[in-house]
Amino acid sequence: MKTNWINGLVGLLVASTAAAVSAQNTWDQPQTYGGGPPPLVRSSYFNPANTSNNFDFQEAPQDGPAPQAPSVPQPPPYHGNSEANGVGLNAYGVVPQAPASNYGTGGACDSGSGQTNGFGNRGYFNHDSGSGGCTGDVTYGIQKSRKLFGGNHGPALFGGSVASADCNVGGKDRNIVVGVGGLVFFRDYEDDVGLSGNGAGEYLFSTSAQNDALGGLEAFIQSRGSNGRGFEARYWGLYPNCSGASISNPWTSLGGLSQIYHGPSTSTVQDVFNRADSHEVCRENRIHNLELNRLINAGTFNGFGCRAVNYEFVHGARWFEFDEYFEYNALSTGTPTFLSYNLETKNTLLGYQFGGRSTRCISDRFQLISGVRFGLYNNRIRHRQQIVDENDYISYINSGPSSGRPFDYSSSKNDLSTIGEADLGLGYLLSSSVRLTIGYRLIGVTGVALAPDQIPYNFTDANELRRIDSNGSLLLHGVYGGLNYCF
Fold it and tell me: What is the pLDDT of residue 69?
């Protein structure tokens, strides 16, 4: 029994030894995996020297070359000197050349051909200094021939800011623009002052003498540097003309004239007016305006449809003069044949104004022009009223504390006035240097003395006769047109 257990144990050991030897021989053979990774290669790299029974280590699969990053295209070289030919190039690519025409699609107003540095259609030249590099502000248009309304010579008001000399065609760094034109304005008048009536139911008021239209002229000169800043001198005027109205077989509504005596006719002025054959009113206006303004480039932006909109600040000194002459006359075949109660006011405003204007391009040739200004002024007012006949005889006061004094009073004072102006017009490019303009303008003036407002309630009160009523206002509105030329 004991011998059998021992024999069994010996047999088990022999079998175990044979299995181990078989497993070792299997481990030592290279392994193959169908369709799998490449066979592992034995290596003795990790086998230390003077050792014999260490397990062999297998190397990891060998890696191939690392993938290369995609190549980045290099930007084209900068060509600053191409700007002289109207093409804006920068480090980000080439700006497309505008069509080779005198006006150029998108060149006169649309700045789409002038995009650089990713601004898209703005036409900003924003290069570093160098040959042909711009150092000025916004530049619109591509064509060499374009000077005024959209090219390198074009000021901000007319469709492009002036570029510096090294970008400008011809090397000019200053723009001169001159303009002339005509005005046809209309005026709103004071509240009615009743003067005369007759048996036929006709009446004569101060506003019966209204100018149908006031005509005048306008002229300006502007100078802008390469940064879009400059100066402007502007003048416009509405020139005198007399408007009148009359009625026959009248009587006067001014009862205070009974206190004024006309010596040659030995009658009161009221009696002279009541027996006259007719009464008439006549009004004459004269308006002058002079401005010296500082011009500041306020930037250029893309408007509707990627069309350029240019803005400009305006501020400076303004002188405005408004003179009004008003007559209330009695005409007769007797003595005197002519007797006139006349009133005159002169308003001279001097002060400071500020505002802005814009030019919005609506096509290659058409531009929408708008502007607004406001100012505060000292108004130096002078006033005179008198009653005089055809022989320059001055009637006199025949009652009250001023009895015997000639009815000829004048005075002056200073007052605060304001002027507001709004302008909306249309510009049309006739050529590279000439623009036609037409538009509508509205001007409001407060704190002025109007002649009919000086008629007193009491014709014998010297203080009232010298007092100036300056609570009136002047409203002018109408159309203008002209030509602008750049050189």
Answer: 55
Residue 289 CA to residue 287 CA, distance in Å, equals: 7
Residue 467's pLDDT band (cuts 50, 70, 90): very high
Cα distance between residue 40 and residue 63, in whole Å = 14
**What secondary structure letter does DSSP report for 131?**
T
| CB distance 298 to 354 below 8 Å | no
- Separation in Å, CA 304 to CA 54, 69, 161, 214, 360: 84, 43, 19, 37, 9
Which among 168, 164, 165 is positioned nearest to 147, based on CA atoms? 168
When pLDDT is cut at 50, 70 and 90, the band that residue 63 belongs to is low
Structure tokens at 58: 């297998």
The pLDDT tens digits of the residues spanning 16-62 come to 444 444 444 443 444 444 444 444 444 333 333 443 444 444 444 55
304 pLDDT higher than 90: no
- Asked if residue 439 lies in contact with residue 424, where contact means CB atoms within 8 angstroms, the answer is yes
pLDDT at 328: 96
| pTM of the entire predicted model | 0.68
Q: Is 431 helix (H, G, I), strand (E, B) or coil?
A: coil
Residue 188's H or E segment, with its range, is: strand 175-188
The secondary structure of residue 387, as a DSSP letter, is E
**What's phi and psi for 74, nearest 5 deg?**
-80, 140
C-alpha dihedral, 104 to 108 to 109 to 115, nearest 10°: 60
- DSSP classification of residue 429: E
Burial label, 12 (beta-carbon count in 10 A; 0-12, 13-18, 19+)? exposed
- Measured on CA atoms in the order 88, 90, 94, 96, is the torsion positive or negative? negative
Report the 3 state secondary structure along 286-329. Answer: EEEEEEEEEEEEEEEEECHHHCEEEEEEEEEEEEEEEEEEEEEE
Question: Distance between CA atoms of 115 and 95, rounded to whole angstroms?
Answer: 6
| Secondary structure class of 6 (helix, strand, coil) | helix
